[in-house]
Amino acid sequence: PRPTAVVCDDDILAVGVCKAARGLGLRVPEDLSVTGFDDMALATVVEPELTTVRLPAEEFGRRGMEALLAVLAGGTPGPDTLPVSLVARGSSGPAPAS
After folding, report:
1. Phi and psi (nearest 5°) for 17?
2. What are the pLDDT digits (tens) for 77-97?
3. Which residues, including other chains, have CB under 8 Å from residue 31's CB and lie 6 or more apart?
4. Are strands 51-54 and 33-37 parallel, antiparallel or unpaired?
5. Which of 15, 36, 51, 85 has the fewest CB atoms nearer than 10 Å to its CB?
6. What is the span of the domain harbouring residue 30?
7. Which residues have C-beta within 8 Å of that of residue 53, sequence separation ≥ 6?
């Protein structure tokens, strides 16, 4: 049995998965759903458009820098969470019927 979905840790990898799937004769999303992460501009210029998770990149960078500065000052940064949202587009769909 093969997977029905691939969740990638960034949009560039997800686009590569879509290309590899087509090379294997699989259709996205009919045979394989693909999702990325970051919601880069690239996500909307591929076909089908990429389902992805949107992360506030500037806020992510700001909080990362704050954590780094805390460590450099001898402190320990606390846990932190950022709001993310799923941006559903054409690269994901229901699992294929078996």
Report:
1. -65, -40
2. 888 899 999 999 999 999 887
3. 4, 21, 96
4. parallel
5. 85
6. 5-87
7. 35, 36, 37, 38, 39, 84, 85, 86, 87
Decide if 96 is inside a domain.
no
| Integer Cα distance of 66 and 73 in angstroms | 11
Q: What is the pLDDT of residues 5-20, one digit of tens each?
A: 999 999 999 999 999 9
Residue 23 sits in a domain whose CATH number is 3.40.50.2300
Buried b (16+ CB within 10 A) or exposed e, 23-56: eeebebbeebbbbbbbbbebbeebeeebbbbeee
Residues 37 and 57 sit within 8 Å (Cβ to Cβ): no
Q: Is residue 64 part of a domain?
A: yes
Residue 52 lies in a domain: yes
Asked if residue 50 belongs to a domain, the reply is: yes
